[in-house]
Amino acid sequence: MQDLGGPRDGGGLRGVSRKHILDGVDASLRRLGLDYVDLFQIHRWDPETPIEETMEALHDVVRSGKARYIGASSVYAWQFAKAVFTADQYAWTRFVSMQNHYSII
Fold it and tell me: For residue 95, which phi and psi values (nearest 5 degrees)?
């Protein structure tokens, strides 16, 4: 899976903008030799991309049949809640999974 999260680094597939999400899912499907994945996850919050752009792009990934479900990892609870609220507000696909930050504590 592509690392789709964090600030953009000027050329790599980073960040969760519409372009990076759509390019990332296509690259993952090609690499895996699949038509779709069961779960497509974003990794990390991107403060440079509006959450509306991210959630609409993820919704389009599900609607196009490239992923069955979407999820997130390494985001804070308030960020996850904001993403779910945004999806609900526009009737877009909601996250079905959350991979929490790892903590030895």
Answer: -65, 140
